[in-house]
Amino acid sequence: MAEPYRIRPATAADIAFLTHVTLEATRAQGRLAADVDEAEWHAGFGAWHRELLADESSTLSVIELDGRPVGRLRVSRTMESIQLNGIQLLPEVQNRGIGTAIITGLQSEAASTGVPLDLGVEWDNPDARRLYDRLGFRKIGEEADGDKLRWLSPAAARQNEIWNADTARRYDTPGSGMFAADVLGPTVDRLAELAGDGRALEFAIGTGRVAVPLAERGVPVSGIELSTAMLEQLRTKADEAAIPVTVGDMSAVRVPGEFTLVYLVFNTISNLLTQEEQVACFRNAARHLSPGGRFVIELWVPELRRLPPGIPATVGVADSGYILLDTYDVLQQHVVSHHFHFGEGTQAELFRSPHRYIWPAELDLMAQLAGLTLESRQSDWTGTEFTADSPSHISVYRLTPEAE
After folding, report:
1. Which tens digits make up the pLDDT trace of 261-305?
2. How many C-alpha atoms does 312 have within 13 Å on its Cβ side?
3. Phi/psi of residue 169, each to 5°?
4. Quick check: 211 and 205 in contact, CB under 8 A?
5. Model-level pTM?
6. Which whole-number Å values give the CA distances from 68 to 71, 85, 100, in the listed order?
7. Fewest beta carbons less than 10 Å away: which of 17, 57, 73, 331?
8. Three-state SS at 105
């Protein structure tokens, strides 16, 4: 357990200490050249720290233990990530759990705001690399003198594992399936109507199946996407200027500005595997809406009536080249979709995706908790009446006056 410590904003009076701790931490790591000119070091790093104090893009702090300064911390925060720019401790207070506690605190902050935690580690700093590996950071790239690492919350890591590069490459099926004109056309028509003259925000924008044609209709579209692989696929169709996207968790991350429409299509809210996360998604949608704005969800109706007694699975599709099998855990309201794709031979490719299913009434209560009320519910994008036998629904929620 870390000893009690305090983090406070750095001031100009701390410049000498900030420079000193940087020097001593580097020396303790064995990364300081034997012939270093310490006077020149202090002058250079002193000037740099004065620049950092004036830099509003990052926060420079002093770490204190028992009322005395023992470390330096610099963190940058943006809509897309938290960046740990540097943490140094005096050698005599290292290995007391302070650095680990600070990093795990930043991980909690990143998880609560729905963004990744990024940092860099030099190749000649193996001790730091071992710590970051133990805390769950993974390499995402390289810099001139080291590796770029990223930490994702367990939920975010799970989604990136499922929606990986292979899945992203196979996701788009132009002209067929969910990309068929008779599916996509009514979807875009209805969303354009609901957006009106305002801006639209798509939660889990994916490869841009809906966002790209909606933007082509003249609706300004932004997005949130957790999977970097899916976002890379989107970027083959539209650049950042055409469709800006914030990387992060749709239940927490914020996008600048207000929107007349937030939408979440193709059952994607069920990718959030707890009721808490799903409620947070509604609340995040409400935070982005302008007065009178709407949140639209496309979702399937749980098929528990089709479950035979004692059999925890249903067959959703059974075609010559594709079988969809859903297995249910009715205690947890979880379902795992097993997608079997068959080629010309005898082998099949299997893709699994876990979900938490939601009844329409439960969805309405989630909306109420977020200050939204149900405005309409149809079976599909063409406006077919919703009945007890409808397999899916399009639910439109509106921001209530009290929540605006």
Report:
1. 999 999 999 999 999 999 999 999 999 999 999 999 999 999 888
2. 11
3. -65, -30
4. yes
5. 0.78
6. 9, 22, 19
7. 331
8. helix
